[in-house]
């Protein structure tokens, strides 16, 4: 094995090597950090060593964008999960946070047994995600292509809606999935609706370093309503990966196919009141959702 070559010493300032001007130094500081999906970013001198960039940050931005996308789409038939981060860049300011542009592919959030041929991969999404240091609720603008056909999505949503409305007794369920990780097919619509509402909560709680996923529903109650909506109260366990914490959240969801999703929630063991509770309708948050 050949010995590792040491980098040449930095040239000294002098007549042939003038010091960079303040303007040049500022431009170098503001230059974007560009990295392919598989790069570690360690060789980029413009990148702060403690920023955790790029692949982990690109994945974090892509997941946050998908939480936001799923919530705003408001359709349990159109849920997506991250398949692969393909490329991205990040502008990093240690004092203020970072702005991430990321391109990634997605998969349909549906059991393989229920997928039709060619239905798994759903094409690309591109997103701009702005993290404000350790503050939750990143600002997101996301655009996706090759979405499920609108007519097909509406048909699947209405079928799920009809199944829920035809129940003679409102549901009261404990533990989805069960202790063996199994979800009965007849409970899958409940899980998908819970995932839909939880997407809003997970987006609101996401920071530059914290990432959540839905681990389990510990209780579900469907309420009878005087209008046409589906009305649920449910408790979820959210798993935060960096700390391995399990956080219980109580969520109230109101859904009707084709209309903005309504979500209210309260979570335990969070650090600040703004992180611990919230309420939202799907039309209230500015963003861009192309081809939907």
TrEMBL record:
Belongs to the protease inhibitor I47 (latexin) family. Keywords: Protease inhibitor, Repeat, Signal. PANTHER family: LATEXIN, RETINOIC ACID RECEPTOR RESPONDER PROTEIN 1. GO terms for cellular component: extracellular space. GO terms for molecular function: metalloendopeptidase inhibitor activity. Residues 40-152, 172-275 form the Cystatin LXN-type domain. The gene is RARRES1. Residues 1-21 have a biased composition (Pro residues). This is Retinoic acid receptor responder 1. InterPro entries: CYSTATIN_LXN (IPR049897), Cystatin_sf (IPR046350), Latexin (IPR009684). Residues 1-36 form the signal peptide. Gene3D superfamilies: 3.10.450.10. Residues 1-22, 273-292 are annotated as: Disordered.
């Amino acid at each position: 094995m050949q010995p590792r070559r040491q980098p040449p010493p930095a040239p000294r300032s002098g007549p042939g090597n003038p010091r960079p001007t303040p303007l040049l130094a500022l431009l170098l500081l503001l230059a974007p950090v560009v990295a392919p999906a598989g790069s570690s970013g360690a060789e980029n001198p413009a990148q702060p060593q403690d920023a955790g960039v790029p692949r982990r940050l690109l994945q974090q931005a892509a997941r946050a964008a998908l939480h936001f996308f799923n919530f705003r789409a408001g359709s349990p038939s159109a849920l997506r999960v991250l398949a692969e981060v393909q490329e991205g860049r990040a502008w990093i300011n240690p004092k203020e946070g970072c702005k991430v542009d990321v391109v990634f592919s997605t998969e349909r959030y549906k059991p393989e047994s229920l997928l039709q041929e060619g239905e798994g991969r759903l094409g690309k999404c591109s997103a701009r995600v702005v993290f404000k240091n350790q503050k939750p609720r990143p600002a997101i603008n996301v655009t996706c292509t090759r979405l499920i056909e609108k007519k097909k999505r509406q048909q699947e949503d209405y079928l799920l809606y009809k199944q829920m409305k035809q129940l003679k007794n409102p549901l009261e369920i404990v533990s989805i999935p069960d202790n063996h990780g199994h979800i009965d097919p007849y409970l899958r619509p409940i899980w998908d609706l819970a995932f839909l509402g939880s997407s809003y909560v997970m987006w609101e709680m996401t920071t530059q370093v914290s990432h959540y996923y839905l681990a389990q529903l510990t209780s579900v109650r469907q309420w009878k309503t005087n209008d046409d909506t589906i009305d649920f109260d449910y408790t979820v366990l959210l798993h935060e990966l960096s700390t391995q914490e399990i956080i219980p959240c109580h969520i109230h969801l109101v859904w009707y196919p084709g209309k903005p999703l309504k979500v209210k929630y309260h979570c335990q063991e969070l650090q600040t009141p703004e992180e611990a509770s919230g309420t939202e309708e799907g039309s209230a948050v500015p963003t861009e959702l192309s081809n939907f």
